[in-house]
Amino acid sequence: MNDRTTTASAEPGDDVTVAGWAHEIRDLGGIAFLIVRDKTGKIQVKFEKDAMDDELVETGTEVARESVVSVTGAVEEEERAPTGVEIVPDSVEVIAPADPELPLDPSGKVDAELPTRLDNRTLDLRREEAKAIFEIRAEVLRSAREAFRELGSTEITTPKIVATGTEGGTELFPITYFGQEAFMNQSPQLFKQLMVGSGLERVFEIGPIFRAEEHNTPRHLNEATSIDFESAFIDHEEAMDACEQVVRAAYEGVAANCADQLDTLGYDDFEVPDEAFPRLTYEEAIERINATGELDTQLVWGDDLPTEGEKALGTDVGGHYFVTDWPSEIKPFYIKDYDDETELSTGFDLMAPNMELVSGGQREHRYDQLVEGFEAQGLDPEAFDYYTKMFRYGMPPHAGWAIGGERLVMTMLDLPNIREAVLFPRDRQRLSP
Ligand code: AMO
């Protein structure tokens, strides 16, 4: 429809054809209004019954809500119209009629429960608030990509069907691959590491990860979007700097380019984090959690941080913060330990602030130590031969991390449920649509 004008660009004096959805019909007796909605906004179409062709009036005012319509007419200034202009129509065409019984109300006047919204995501995303989240999500990914390019990294895509797990061998979705057992990849971890040893040196990937976790919580998905970074010749401190740069760029991009969407969502105080993200050691973190008195039992060295502990510390710190220097035994085999303190690992997490947003660390690049690490975690190094053998041909020191894409949007917008940031979430109950 080359001759289509968007509702936002219709100017008084123009003869236009707008196309969109029949958002609302208001019949006031002698006069009736059809509100047409498109991606850019809404426009009022005025029907003066006595002065207009009956068939035209009937088509424009009896159309079922949410039908796709096309309206041709003259744009006139009308200060009483919601946008200050209205169309006086010459013709109205119903391009695709909608069933009068809608499973949810896209005007948002009647609230629907999340499962109903997810079952009817197409209709749900006709609501401005739902649409705004995905426009912001797109901006987050766009600005992350730009930040990655500024960091001199090359975008890669790696296989999602794999022969082995990476995050410890558990929580895998098995599939059948031509009669052979295979899995959906949990993380591009091993592939991105292999690429730092290639000529590419510094890479990033934005893609799906699959976790067969039993969790059914507001912050876990079984398919999520991982924003991965990996670079040769940097240590974990420099990796944290790069992570901070990308997270900050996402906030800056949204602040600069999503004013309308933030307004739709009611954020008048959206802030780009201004302070450098504090870096707390794991030891400091457990001391501070214990000091809040929020936990029934005191944490001791070696404990993973429980959800309530993360929440208590997040409230205490108040913004993004890194937790560094974790006990080696609770970090995966690919994370490097400090050379002088092998019970301490270079792994880190970024908290935002009440939940984990990122994990990363410096990697073990020495072949012998890497193979030992596999054995220590009960994994068979033979099964990972495709990976370990490249460490015998010149693997540089390297570090990296992964941001959970949906958690980035969720924490940025303070969404109550991670599913709000996914078009079609995959969770324990949901495989379709
Ligand atoms: P990790 O397993 O911590 O690390 O995952 C990285 C980040 O991805 C997000 N995430 C999830 N989001 C929603 N639902 C899930 N089930 C889920 N699982 C993970 C989180 C998390 O912080 N290979 C390492 C990263 C690295 O070291 O580079 C990894 O996958 O925001």
Automatic annotation (TrEMBL):
Keyword field contains Transferase: no
A Pfam family assignment: tRNA_anti-codon
PROSITE patterns named in the record: AA_TRNA_LIGASE_II
Record field: catalytic activity: tRNA(Asx) + L-aspartate + ATP = L-aspartyl-tRNA(Asx) + AMP + diphosphate
Entry keywords, A to Z: Aminoacyl-tRNA synthetase, ATP-binding, Cytoplasm, Ligase, Magnesium, Metal-binding, Nucleotide-binding, Protein biosynthesis
Protein's GO biological process: aspartyl-tRNA aminoacylation
Family under the similarity heading: Belongs to the class-II aminoacyl-tRNA synthetase family. Type 2 subfamily.
NCBIfam families, sorted: aspS_nondisc, PRK05159.1
Protein name stated in the entry: Aspartate--tRNA(Asp/Asn) ligase
